[in-house]
Structure formats: C-alpha cells, structure tokens
Amino acid sequence: MTLTRRDFAKLGALGLAAQFAPQLHAQANKKKIGYAIIGLGRIAGHFMPGIRNTTNSQVTALVSGHRDKAERLADQYGVPHSSIYSYDDFDRIAENKAVDAVYVALPNSMHAEYTIRAAKAGKHVLCEKPMAASVADAEAMIAACKAANVKLMIAYRCHYEPTNLKAVQLIRQGALGQVQAIESQFGFNIAPGEWRLNRKLAGGGPLYDVGIYSLNACRYLTGEEPAHIAAFASVIDHDGRFNEVEENVSWTMKFPSGIVASCNTTYGAPMEGFFRVHGSKGTLEAAPAFNYDGLRLIADFAGTHIDKPNPAKDPYQFTAQAEHFSHCIQNGLAPKTPGEEGLRDMRYIAQIYHSAGIDI
Ligand code: NAD
Questions:
Q1: Helix intervals (H) in the chain
Q2: How far apart are CA 124 and CA 119, in angstroms?
Q3: Are the C-beta atoms of residues 42 and 35 closer than 8 Å to each other?
Q4: Is residue 93 part of a domain?
Q5: Cα 128 to averaged position of ligand 1 atoms, centre (Å)
Q6: Is 213 labeled as catalytic in the residue annotation?
Q7: Whether residues 135 and 101 fall in one domain
Q8: Could you tell me if residue 331 is inside a domain?
Q9: Number of compact structural domains in the chain
Q10: Catalytic residue among 213, 220, 316, 348
Q11: pLDDT of residue 16
C-alpha cells in the first residue's frame, strides 16, 4: 500500500503509521500497473477515483456494453479510445501491452467468466466481492489464474482500511483479553428491479452482497475459521422483490477457541454495518465499520477509552486496495486477500444457506 504524506498523517492519528512505513520506500521507480476496468457501474465509480490517487496504478482500458459512457470516462481518465472494449471483443485485450491487470466490477455470476478470460489473456485479476456465485466458479477462477501464472486478489477493501486494521491489532495485542463473543450486521432496504434480486446474476441475496462483510470481519477479527455454523433465513415482505433471493439471514458461527459470533443481514431494512467485540477485559466496536468513509472505532479496556472517528474520505480504501495489488504485481508478492480467501467465504456462505434450508 502506497501512502501520501497526508494519508500517513491520518494513519498516525490511528496509531497505524509504523505498520505501513516500510512500503513508503519500496514504491519508488517502478512502472505503474495498468488496469482495465470491466463494468462501469457504481463500484467502478469509487475504484477509478481511488486508482487516480495511487502512485503505482493507472486506468489504461475500459470494458463496457455502453460505448458512450466508456468514451466519456476514457476522456476523463486519459484512456485512448482504442483501449475501449465491448464484452464481445474483450479477449483482444491480450494484445494490449498497457494492460497488466483487470478489475472485475460486474454482477456476481459474471465474475468467473471475466476472471477466466482475463487470465487466459495473461492479465492479473482484482475481482470484486463476493468472489463468485458458487463455490465451483470460485474454484475454477483460482485454477485458471494458477494455470496462467497470474495473480488473483479479491477486493476485500476492509483488509486495507485503518479502522478495521486497528481493531484487529488491538485484539491481537490482547487489549480485550480473551474474546468471547462478536456481533456484526450489514443490510439495506433494496429497490425493486436490481440485478441483486435476480438469483442467476447475484447467486443469492443480502448474504452474498453485504452479509459477507460480517462473515469476513468475524474471521479477520478472531483470526480463526468457523468450526460450526447455524442459520435461519426468511422473507417477510411479499412485495415481489424476494421471489428469487432471501430477504433476511441470521447466522451464528462457533470458532475453535469457543468464540461465538452472531450476525444479521437484510435487504428489507436500513441496517448499519458494524461489529462489536466482547472480551474478558473490554469491548471494542466499529460503527460504521464497512462504509466507504466516516468509520468510527470505540473501545474500552483496562481504564482506556478510545473514540476515534476516521477522518479519511472516500475513495481512500480503494486507493489502498489498488496500491496493495499493484505492489504485489510489481514485486512478485502474494496479495493479502487472494482467491483462496474469497473461496473460503463462498464455502461458508454455502454452509449458512444449507443450515437455513436454502438450496444453492
Ligand atoms: P452496478 O449495477 O452498479 O454495476 C454493474 C455493471 O455491470 C454495470 O456497468 C452494468 O452495465 C454491467 N453489466 C454487464 N452485464 C450486466 C448484466 N447482465 N446485468 C447487469 N449489469 C451488467 O453494480 P455494482 O454495485 O457496481 O456491483 C458490481 C460488483 O461490485 C458486484 O459484484 C458487487 O458485489 C460489488 N460491489 C462491491 C462493493 C465494495 O464495496 N467492494 C460495493 C458495491 C458493489
């Protein structure tokens, strides 16, 4: 992750500057990594400004079904119109030397096809979460990237975000004593007509989309993998939105140490994304924990009270994430959130659905 002086000052305020200091020197004098953005929707609209703020990455190609939108964005980001591809002629990207990597920002079930086509074109892949619509697709993506000898990273931006990293650091340092229990949640009230409500495109409902933040957070907060999972799912609003995917999922995970995590996700209510960790010596919560900015960490342990709003503004998480992947490509390193990390979540999602009685 590459940092500007201003970012470094912000991390300093959160007590995380030292963690990133070595990379300040490693990033000089390397060719910038060129990205093709596949899918010019909402999340691409955060990622592209994020890339612009990096020192080691740039947008060099666009892949879209809407030529007019692509041309507008190409002009904004200095991308030649000859580097705009449609979904049909995407494979020609193999010949484009300005493209080192692709960023897959398509509906979930399309991640596998474009990751595999990108790998065959010899490009590294940064793929949005959830990694895929099924465990089998996630496995095929890992296999294709291995066969092509390209890197695969899943865009779990919270792994590159200082408030979340600070929470992990405090827990690992033992500030909270023995962690006993975690609560986490994330949801929103979905509008009708979204591809997220189409099972074929989304794979599933809010668990795939935003519940995955809680699932993943419980794993990075504990540093453990869940040993037992039990879940319920429901549809309350029979208003046509939930004919194909669930509206609510509530699940519990028991970790090998005995830590128990309770999580909720919904497409039926505005549910702030947060986590709260209860330890024998104190508590810690991030609320909100998963937003693009405005994060806040509150902790109480051993007479210490922390209340730290994170002042960084969107798209800083996207900058950190792109910096990390480009740094890995430039230096032959393994990304912190590789395909295998995405696959693990896909497997736990399948277990949660199985326990809730949902066929996938
Ligand atoms: P979006 O609907 O805003 O954008 C999707 C893009 O895919 C659009 O440009 C659309 O034109 C294109 N597309 C191509 N074929 C399509 C088809 N058959 N149906 C619908 N769209 C099609 O979606 P989004 O919110 O940007 O989500 C894209 C991906 O990013 C999803 O996998 C989502 O889970 C992920 N995401 C991640 C975050 C994050 O914070 N990391 C946030 C939001 C979304």
A1: 5-13, 17-26, 44-52, 67-77, 111-120, 135-147, 162-172, 199-202, 206, 212-222, 316-331, 339-356
A2: 6
A3: no
A4: yes
A5: 9
A6: yes
A7: yes
A8: no
A9: 2
A10: 213
A11: 52
| 169, 174, 177, 179 alpha-carbon torsion, rounded to 10° | 40
Q: What is the pLDDT of residue 27?
A: 55
**Above pLDDT 90, what percent of the chain?**
91
* Amino acid letter for position 95: E
> Is the predicted pLDDT of residue 241 greater than 80, yes or no?
yes
* pLDDT band, residue 28 (cuts 50/70/90): low
Handedness of CA 16, 253, 111, 340 (dihedral sign): positive
Question: 79 is in which domain, residue-wise?
Answer: 15-157
Amino acid letter for position 340 = E
Ligand 1 is surrounded, with C-beta below 6 A, by 39-43, 65, 105-108, 128-129, 155, 157, 195, 201, 209
The verdict on 150 and 44 lying in the same domain is: yes
Question: Does any domain span residue 323?
Answer: no
Residues 192-228: pLDDT tens digits?
999 999 999 999 999 999 999 999 999 999 999 999 9
The Cα 1–Cα 124 span in angstroms is: 17
**Tokens 């590789």 — which residue?**
338
User: Does residue 18 surpass a pLDDT of 80?
Assistant: no
Q: Are residues 40 and 71 in the same domain?
A: yes
pLDDT above 50 (res 22): no
For residues 105 and 52, membership in a common domain is answered with yes
Is the pLDDT at 191 greater than 70, yes or no?
yes
Same domain, 228 and 102: no
Residues 132 and 115: their CA atoms lie apart, in Å, by: 10
Q: Which two tokens stand for residue 69?
A: 């939108």
Same-domain pairing of 180 and 282: yes
